[in-house]
Amino acid sequence: MQKQTRKGLLFTSDDISIVMHENSYSGNIIKTTFLEEKSSFNLLFLLSPNIHLTTDNFETQFRFNRNQYILHYSVEESHAELWTDSDILRCIQIQINYQYIFNLINPDSSQESAEILKEMTSNQFVFLHQKTPPNITVEMHLILNEIVSYYRKGVMQKLFVEAKVIKLLILIFEQFHDKNMTEDLSKTPLIIKKFVDENYHRNLKIEEISKILGINETKIRKEFKIHFQKTITDYISELRMLKARKLIVNKDLMIKEIAIDCGYEYVQNFTRAFKKKFGVSPEKLRTSSF
Questions:
Q1: Both 37 and 57 in a single domain?
Q2: Are residues 44 and 167 in the same domain?
Q3: pLDDT digit string (tens) for 213-247?
Q4: Strand ordering across the sheet containing 16-25
Q5: CATH of the domain at 160
Q6: CB 1: neighbour CB atoms within 10 A?
Q7: Considering its fold, how many domains does the chain have in total?
Q8: Can you tell me the distance from the alpha carbon of 230 to that of 65, in angstroms, rounded to the nearest whole number?
């Protein structure tokens, strides 16, 4: 039985720190610990199933399903432990300094701001007094994926992370006040489309889209087809062919290079798809263009 552990600090500044906890084990129980600093807000996004949480200053033990999250305010420094009897434990912790939130919300500016801050500071390892932790929405999944995959460092990373964290907080406030629960369902196909538009050039598969966005594969296929009257596979192929048609006139590019740039691992598959779309092979269309 081999245990693999990855506990990585993705970002840290005076106001925000982000840690990825990712453990896998073929044995019985996986455990990881995390620290909540004094006067800090902690967002914990739980990305694997059947996660239990215990803390040194709270007697209740919590159990979470996959794709749930909690927002907790820690008055004093405290430690908590996550564990699961599943074969993987994966979560993202975003810790935000109290003063940063205070300045961001400015409770002196309005009654609404004062109430939001009061609600945020009065919870006990649950989402603002709700007994059932809320679900991570599709938009939240996208933001988390952008944070994890961002490659720049320094000032650019700081600005990027702060913007994404603020967006997460906006989504959380909206979710708490039930302003966008119904709208979120209708946004799902548009969010899928946005992801595909930005990634169709990769060797993209429905399984990968499902994993990254946290949406069931069947739901992805069904909702995309209903909203756009075409399958997601056909849409990806259409985007690739439109790009291929623009690149084919460039004689400096080999057909193989174009195929890879359009998301095809094998030239034969690219040529077959190209001929089906345009009625001629890439080579013949390139010849006829000059």
A1: yes
A2: yes
A3: 878 888 888 888 888 888 988 889 889 988 888 88
A4: 3-12, 16-25, 88-97, 40-46, 68-74
A5: 2.60.120.810
A6: 6
A7: 3
A8: 33
